[in-house]
Amino acid sequence: MSDAIPSRIEMARPAFRTGTVAQMPRRAVRRRSPFRRFVSSLLLVILVVLLVVAADFARFALLVGTSERPSDPRAEGIVALTGGAARIDGALNLLSANRAGRLLISGVNPSVGRREIASTLDPDARGSLDTRVDLGHAARDTIGNADEARAWAEDHKYRSLIVVTSDYHMPRSMVELASAMPDVELIAYPIRNPQLEMERWWRHASSARLLLAEYLKYTLARARLVFESPKELHETEPSATASAAGVAPEVLR
């Protein structure tokens, strides 16, 4: 009897091994394919980039919305970038207050004359238009403004300039001007349009679109400067600026 019992047990062991326990499905270890890992990594990179861009745009919008004019700006020259009568008006007011010795209006269009320029200005700001103002008509964009301002500053041996343009345009303008004139002190004098309400740009679709478009241009300008040296960016000399003394009628863009 004692020998039979172990035999039966031994005979039952294979059945136990091959029975229910052996037939239980093993847990499959699934490994993500290289493509799925690539997609996950790509999505993570895109998310990080979007967060960085959003943070950078927020910084740009805050910079524009909180920009203030200096209380007592003084320099050797003033550069006004065309794009609105308020910019020229503000620059001429600085000139009339003797904040600088001379003014360059950069980006003048030859389709309109000095009379048309004067007609858009405050009467009190017109006095210096014919005596202390130079008109530059070579520039067609902000890069051209920087080249034109650099040539003008070199002609007059100016080492400091007050830069007058709209608040939303100022960051890009300062990037381009600083690249063209790294040894010249630049003082930002932003002109604000109250109707745009840049300090609350998210409330107005037109202001949001303008700010986004300007941020894109500003970002592209910074990216271009990373890959191109200042010499490559500004190696083309603009034509000489026209002095107020004997220039043919010219116009603002």
UniProtKB/TrEMBL annotation:
The protein's name in its UniProt record: Uncharacterized SAM-binding protein YcdF (DUF218 family)
GO aspect biological process, one term: Gram-negative-bacterium-type cell wall biogenesis
One GO CC annotation: plasma membrane
InterPro entries attached to this UniProt entry: Cell_Envelope_Assoc, DUF218
Region span, Disordered: 232-253
Domain DUF218: 77-216
Pfam families, per the entry: DUF218 (PF02698)
